[in-house]
Amino acid sequence: MKELATKEKQRTDFAFDELRLLDKKGEELLDLAKSYKIDGDFFFEKEKWLESFELYVYIFGILDSLANLKLVDPGEARKHYKIDPL
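Given the sequence above, the corresponding structure tokens read:
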């Protein structure tokens, strides 16, 4: 479980580093994803692998939704999203 949590943390960190907000309509959801990221990082630091893994996967669901609605640009992290290519 530690390996899975680490992989999802890295993917989520990269996604947040790369994304760019395109529309203010997505700001609230993006803030929600960021708050879940804080929680995921907390659990990761406490070595609560399952909890952190679940949060990182959930965060990516929010980011996928934002990208599909064209509210964020995923940048170089696009390959990690479940969205249509440009």
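The longest strand covers residues 20-21. Try to locate this feature in the token string yourself.
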